[in-house]
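Pair request: fold both.
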Amino acid sequence: MVRADVQSDGVTGTVTEILPRKNAFARPAVANVDFLVMVLSAALPVTDPYLVDRITVRCEKNGCGVVLAVNKCDLDPAQSLQDIYAATPYPVYPVSAATGRGIDELREALAGKICCFTGNSGVGKSSLLNALRPGLAIPTAQISEKLGRGKHTTRHVELFQLSDGTYAADTPGFASFGDEAEPPILPEELAGLFPEFAPYLDRCRFDDCTHRAEPGCAVRLAAEEGRIHPSRYASYLRLYEEASRLDPWEIDNS
């Protein structure tokens, strides 16, 4: 990331300083992001919580904050999605780019930050940015009722100024968020990347507990009792199995 003196034409300028890099993602190619804003929906297209959890884990690994914007709440309040993340530290904002619901609250949460918007194609990332700063006129497209998903109107990463000190990058959909371009996450790292697991990690009977089938596992018990949402725990188990299948060369070359 650089600091530049921009000329009066608003286009040309001179690089004055290269800032230290605090985080980076390969796909989409962004760096020094304060928040990754994940735009979710229970209306078409419906967001799969597992895809969200894959990205929250990557954000935790990269030291990037997470904000969840549940869009299209005028069509479906997405209460099940809101419930999943209520027990996490991630702030959840029910919003509607169409009606303006929650836009002021989301704008306030992002004030002074550098953000990156991601989510399913068609979930309303570009529409939300247009609502956050009227006049941007970022192109949008209709959802395909037959396919249940949107068209890729955003084909590259572009940074927009929402207000003084607030910037947001619009990116292509979740399909372009590439875990394969990032260093692998090892199985033993995963539990620490689910922040709501933290109160239970040192309560397990065994120090090397994988939080799957071991007796006396405090994490599994918390999931069974609803203190950890079952959907998040299911994502942990699935991610653990995927990480366990890593070849040694993938780990050695990370």
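--- second member of the pair ---
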Amino acid sequence: MNSFTKLGFILATLGSSIGLGHIWRFPYMTGEYGGSAFVVIYIFLTIFIGIPILVAKMVIGNKTQKNVVRAFDTLDPTVKKHWKKAGIMIIGGPLILTFYAVVLGWVFYYLAIVSFNLPDTIEASNNTFGAFVSDNVLASSASFGVCIFLTSYIVAKGVKDGLEKYNFILMPLLFIIFIGLFFYAMTVDSFDQAVDFLFSFNVNVINTDVIIMALSQMFFSLSIGVGTIITYSSSAKKGDNLLSSSAWVALSGIVISLIAGIIIFTFLFNYGQSASSGPGMLFKSIPLVFSQMAYGNIVSFLFFAAVLFAGITSTISILEPPVAYLSDNYNISRPKASYLLCVAIFAIGLLVILSLTEDYGPYLTFFGKGFMDWIDFFTAAIIMPLGALLALIFLGFVVSKKVVYRFVKGFMSRTIFNIWYFIIKYIATLVIVIVLIAKFVETFAKAAN
């Protein structure tokens, strides 16, 4: 795999995190889990836990220049070399894509179809989205197929001609369009209400669910725990300042999340809608605004194009780790590995699509959760935190402290290193363990009832 340039590495890593996780998932999670309380906890965890974990993952990849499995194997100082099994985290990526690319397919449908026939009432908007998701299996499957094929095509082309090239185009376009929408939202009467909802901290709504879901959002939005960061950093030049790269990625992600939240809640509140509108939030409020604007069809097309581009930068980053692993370890060409994985993802994704329909949904619901919800739960609340936990235990307790310091001394002072090392070895590890235990207890308690 060819190397990224410095800017290419930052944009690629930024693209892996800034996607539907920030624009689609963050707003609806905020609406369902406490508003400003969720936001504050998410920001706190991202800065004080997320950035140190990002650095740790980047160190593993950058110092070995290998895929996830081989990176752990190379750094493993033990005789039996069992730590290569930590590379199992790469299974989380394809699982995430089975529902993530389905949602991206919704974006594509709105880009290509709904933008030219915008609903002008909230009822019409709800009906448009509901009819598409619940009844139009063919359109949902076709849209999903377009997105997953485009993902496999870009990944198949490699780092220089695929990942870096497209990120240079897609990421700037996303920022330009979103900043423009933010300034437009500032002119809407409900803007202050949206800001209040996101930033007026209410400690009374904090509970275990809010903390767990804020942590899962941090992992999801930073692409932590599925091998993406290790894989991308293995293609960055050795000696890059991984601390500054991690800070750029995390802080930019927070900014995009907040901008997306303000825009979407401004539009929701302006039409008298509840903040807890669920996963369909992006597709119910935004089209209404465009229908009231001059040249709204064009703006809608550009908006959903930007969201699609942001989503594609994330899907390619999620698919890259397993493709790199298959290509490196089993001598399978990148195109073949990419397309084979996408066929498997498409097959499971069809079950996700069927689980959202009225006819087949009841057969794909287990213990009160739909098929899509279960995949989301296992990836964002279990596999991703567990993948991060393994990396932290590996650097904190398996690789010697002297060796780790030698890896980072080019961009960390001894004082900064000691603080970072303490966080990844004790604080971040403890937080993840506590949250994982709490989530397991809660899940099994609900299942028992």
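Observation on the second member. Residues 6-448 form a domain with the Amino acid/polyamine transporter I fold (CATH 1.20.1740.10).
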